[in-house]
Amino acid sequence: MVGLGRMGSGMTRRLEANGQEVATYDPNVASTAKTLAALKKQLEPPRHVWMMVPAGEITEQTFQRLVKLLDPGDTIIDGGNSFFRDSQRRYKEARKQKIGFVDVGVSGGVWGFEVGFCLMAGGDKAPIKRLRPVLEALAPDDGYAHVGTSGAGHFVKMVHNGIEYGLMQAYAEGFEIMEHSEFDLDMEEIAGIWRYGSVVRSWLLELLHAAFEQHGSKLDDIAPFVEDSGEGRWTINEAINENVPAPVISASLYARFASRREIDFSAKVAAALRNQFGGHAIKAVKHAKAGTDPR
Q1: Given a cut of 70, is residue 291 above it in pLDDT?
Q2: Bridge partners of 48?
Q3: pTM for the whole thing?
Q4: Positive or negative, the Cα torsion across 45, 58, 10, 202?
Q5: How confident is the model at residue 294 (pLDDT cuts 50, 70, 90)?
Q6: Which 3-state string (H, E, C) describes the chain?
Q7: Known catalytic residues?
Q8: Of the candidates 180, 265, 274, which has an alpha carbon nearest to the alpha carbon of residue 226?
Q9: What is the rounded average pLDDT of the residues 96-108?
Q10: Confidence class for position 263, pLDDT limits 50, 70, 90
Q11: What average pLDDT does the segment 203-211 reach?
Q12: Which of 48, 160, 180, 285 is 20 to 30 A from 264 in CA distance terms?
């Protein structure tokens, strides 16, 4: 396992809890290996090296180092939120060196260690078949699938996250309407009762209730600023390329943009949800000092 952040550390612990022996490398935390070369020596061929690092330049650098370091028959797995076109390119580059490449969309956030990670694998059948004990250890029952050829895993995860944008925004807007109503409503209580019997009950709603418990019904200590990590943009771009209308996902992305300029309760709800399921940082409210103009 290369990368022991929020996701990589939880996945490593879940694998070890299920009887897997895992060699690790992360330059920022304690690992079994101090370098990628040392990590290679700790693994018996055929080696399987799972990258769990941020999408973008870090993933590219790590991949390029591994593809030069590993031997024919080894496999590189990218479990980050990489763009699926990049995964297709990396698959072709790895094949030239007779190294396997598997892209795995991973969902589960900080709760994955406890409840399991949903896994969407793309690539050739042979390396994914060899990875089956690992995938089964990481996922809950019926929680993983080989969804298609190279790039399919990250493509499906991209759409998954686009849907997540829309779901979160629907909750956020609903609670915004209630927040501005004439009634004195207890948001924590409402989120709580909706968890039972309601047609809108979901894990996201359970996490929202937990956020209200932690931060209060007004979410006073959360700034209304919602980041996006790219998947929503990619999903919309693919919808445009395929001539598929995606108004809900598009509107939810634009709402995140608006949250960085406007103060509203829906942005607080969305920020709280991202923190609950993914451990994403929230921006704390900066209170004005006495005697200053709060504007």
Answers
A1: no
A2: 75
A3: 0.86
A4: negative
A5: very low
A6: CECCCHHHHHHHHHHHHCCCCCCCECCCCCCCCCCHHHHHHCCCCCCEEEECCCCCHHHHHHHHHHHHHCCCCCEEEECCCCCHHHHHHHHHHHHHCCCEEEEEEEECHHHHHHHCCEEEEECCHHHHHHCHHHHHHHCCCCCEEEEECCCHHHHHHHHHHHHHHHHHHHHHHHHHHHHCCCCCCCHHHHHHHHCCCCCCCCHHHHHHHHHHHHHCCCCCCECCCCCCCCHHHHHHHHHHHCCCCCHHHHHHHHHHHHHCCCCCHHHHHHHHHHHHHHCCCCCECCCCCCCCCCC
A7: 157, 164
A8: 274
A9: 97
A10: low
A11: 95
A12: 160
Nearest Cα to 165, choosing from 210, 230, 222?
Answer: 230
Q: What is the CA radius of gyration of the chain?
A: 21
**Amino acid found at 280:** H
What is the percent of the chain with per-residue pLDDT over 90, rounded to a whole number?
79
Q: What is the pLDDT of residues 129-139, one digit of tens each?
A: 999 999 999 99
pLDDT of residue 176: 93
Residues 6+ apart with CB under 8 A from 45: 71, 73, 74
- For the chain, the distance separating the N- and C-terminal CA atoms, rounded to the nearest angstrom, is 47
Whether the CA torsion 240, 241, 243, 245 is positive or negative: it is: negative
